[in-house]
């Protein structure tokens, strides 16, 4: 048997096991996985002795080239990353699939929004991508025709917001969207924060002149997230229990709500993000506008919340670890759009994290022994693939799967600097962190897209991925 490419001498990790194997790749797919592939069997050979071969990461929570809704508090703030730099940054960080949001603006059609995001990605994406649908205006046309058609066309996951004035849905609207998701077997993602409470708190802080970045965190305490998480899961229960993802969970109280809902039999999937492990409110409490670099929603919290998120990763409460990459520069185009010193309510929320997601968790989770390598793979690739209908093609190392692979040097010591990340954002909140382990060579469908710090991929080679039925529907009982 002969192959286009053979990776020789590596250690392969999947969500289930870690084993030594040579990998034969033909036509972009894994064609053989064997203890030893005969010498000379590959048209090209790569010696990966001493390296870990992981499935390329799937980052299922990224904002790329997303237009701010008109009327948003930070209206006009532009995302720095389009699909070219966003997916390039993904590749440099060992991620070979992104799922970003196709966002409807109120008063416009969701179908047109999706067509627009297809145009933004085509000709630009370096790795493969899918879209979640963000529903902000669930009209009868959207609920009755557009959503069913878009789900059938391969966008089988929908996000709803419980806050942000320009995007949020009322409970009744969330119910309607969830019911359509249930009927057409789509997955629902919820941004869960209590809008009325956080707005009231923010206005009181503002009235006292407390408008610095740290007050953003103080306006959105954990109970704001706890209540909304409970309400979102109640709405899911009422709507026939479509698989429901609580995204960007930041601490113990929403985690408890998720556990309770699971105990009642709901299919609840929980996601956390690097900022809830590695940042805290103190990172927002810095001189000048430095704290804006760590401003996201929900905000990073305290050591106890970080510990609760780590425990959730260790004990299986969290199924997903995604970045919530929201790429705003620290300049007049991005976070400082409203001026050099804007009150926190005028600063765009979100932090970059596509390229740092995997290296941070690898170093502080796997190298430290907190989570096994198999769990790292599950959290960062396999579970996203299964939940969002990209398996078995994506998210694992198996014969027949796409050869989306990250070759890691598990011992390489790296000091995180913004230049390593290849996004268009002008900062990383992790600048200066010293970590161990780095993805040095990254393949997408058998093609080397990154090697030794250099991009080898042609923009536009990335393809749109149609999601198939989520394993949360396809398999009885708990999906994982
Ligand atoms: O602050 C955040 N997370 N901004 C990105 C949008 C979202 O809510 O996920
Ligand atoms: Zn969100
Ligand atoms: Zn987000
Ligand atoms: Zn090359």
Automatic annotation (TrEMBL):
Gene3D superfamilies: Metal-dependent hydrolases, Urease, subunit C, domain 1. GO terms for molecular function: dihydropyrimidinase activity; metal ion binding. It comes from the Bacteria. Keywords: Hydrolase, Metal-binding. It holds the Pfam family Amidohydro_1. Its cofactor is Zn(2+). It is an enzyme of class 3 (hydrolase). Its EC number is 3.5.2.2. SUPFAM superfamilies: Composite domain of metallo-dependent hydrolases, Metallo-dependent hydrolases. InterPro entries: Amidohydro-rel (IPR006680), Hydantoinase/dihydroPyrase (IPR011778), Metal-dep_hydrolase_composite (IPR011059), Metal_Hydrolase (IPR032466), Metallo-dep_Hydrolases_sf (IPR050378). Carbamylation allows a single lysine to coordinate two divalent metal cations. Residues 53-449 form the Amidohydrolase-related domain. GO terms for cellular component: cytosol. The modification N6-carboxylysine is found at residue 159. Belongs to the metallo-dependent hydrolases superfamily. Hydantoinase/dihydropyrimidinase family. This is Dihydropyrimidinase. It comes from Muricoccus nepalensis. The lineage of its organism: Bacteria, Pseudomonadati, Pseudomonadota, Alphaproteobacteria, Acetobacterales. The gene is hydA.
């Amino acid at each position: 048997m002969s192959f286009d490419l053979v990776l020789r001498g590596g250690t392969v990790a999947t969500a289930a096991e870690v084993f030594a194997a040579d990998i034969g790749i033909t036509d972009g797919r894994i064609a053989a996985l064997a203890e030893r592939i005969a010498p000379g069997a590959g048209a090209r050979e790569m010696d990966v002795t001493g390296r870990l071969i992981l499935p390329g990461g799937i980052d299922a929570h990224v904002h790329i080239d997303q237009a701010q809704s008109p009327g948003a508090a930070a209206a006009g703030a532009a995302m720095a990353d389009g699909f070219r730099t966003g997916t390039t940054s993904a590749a440099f960080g060992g991620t070979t699939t992104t799922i970003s949001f196709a966002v409807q603006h109120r008063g416009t059609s969701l179908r047109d929004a999706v067509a627009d995001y297809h145009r933004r990605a085509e000709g630009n994406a370096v790795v493969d991508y899918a879209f979640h649908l963000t529903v902000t205006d669930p009209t009868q046309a959207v609920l009755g025709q557009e959503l069913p058609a878009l789900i059938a066309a391969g966008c089988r996951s929908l996000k709803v917001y419980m806050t942000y004035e320009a995007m949020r849905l009322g409970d009744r609207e969330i119910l309607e969207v969830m019911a359509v998701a249930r009927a057409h077997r789509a997955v629902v993602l919820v941004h869960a924060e209590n809008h009325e409470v956080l707005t009231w708190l923010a206005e009181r802080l503002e009235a006292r002149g407390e408008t610095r970045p740290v007050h953003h965190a103080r306006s959105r305490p954990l109970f704001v997230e706890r209540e909304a998480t409970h309400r979102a899961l109640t709405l899911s229960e009422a709507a026939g229990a479509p698989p429901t993802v609580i995204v960007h969970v930041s601490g113990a109280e929403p985690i408890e709500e998720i556990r309770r809902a699971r105990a009642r039999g709901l299919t609840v999937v929980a996601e956390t993000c690097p900022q809830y492990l590695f940042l805290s409110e103190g990172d927002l409490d810095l001189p000048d506008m430095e704290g804006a670099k760590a401003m996201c929603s929900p905000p990073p919290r305290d050591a106890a919340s970080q510990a609760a998120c780590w425990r959730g990763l260790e004990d299986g409460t969290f199924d997903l670890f995604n970045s919530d990459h929201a790429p705003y520069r620290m300049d007049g185009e991005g976070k400082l759009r409203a001026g050099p010193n804007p009150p926190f309510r005028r600063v765009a929320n979100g932090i970059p994290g596509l390229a740092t997601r995997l290296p941070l968790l690898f170093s502080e989770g796997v190298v430290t022994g907190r989570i096994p390598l198999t769990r790292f793979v599950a959290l960062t690739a396999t579970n996203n693939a299964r939940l969002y209908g990209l398996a078995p093609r994506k998210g694992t190392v198996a014969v027949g799967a796409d050869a989306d692979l990250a070759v890691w040097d598990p011992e390489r010591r790296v000091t995180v600097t913004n230049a390593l990340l290849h996004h268009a954002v002008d900062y990383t909140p992790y600048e200066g962190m010293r970590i161990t382990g780095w993805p040095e060579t990254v393949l997408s469908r058998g093609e080397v897209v990154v090697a030794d710090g250099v991009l080898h991929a042609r923009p536009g080679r990335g393809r749109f991925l149609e999601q198939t039925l989520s394993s949360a529907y396809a398999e009885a009982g708990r999906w994982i």
